[in-house]
Amino acid sequence: VQLQASGGGLVQAGGSLRISCTASGRTFSGLVMGWFRQAPGKEREFVAAITESASRTYYRALYGDSVRGRFAISRDNAKNTVYLQMNRLNPVDTSVYYCAAGESNSQGLGSDKTYAYWGQGTLVTVSS
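Given the sequence above, the corresponding structure tokens read:
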């Protein structure tokens, strides 16, 4: 599976951005898809995930560090593409965002162990 992320860029705090990831090399509708991010000097962290048929979504929701209600993951299986709509962005959201694909949900949607395939990342920079 090859994953190509796009749509990153520079946005002001409070603004919105939608990033995309297109997959090839495997039946997209059979893949669990996720978004992760990594800020400079920090470990990679889970952001959002969506099941194969889009019947369930899952978001980072740690106290004081939540994207729930601001970010929305979606997918278009006809276009082999997963999206991450990011609203009310703030500077702490600045990161390289990676899309990832997995063939099953055996380790949980929020675990990077679920995802065998990773894209190259797209940089999102939020200015204050």
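The mean pLDDT is 94. Try to locate this feature in the token string yourself.
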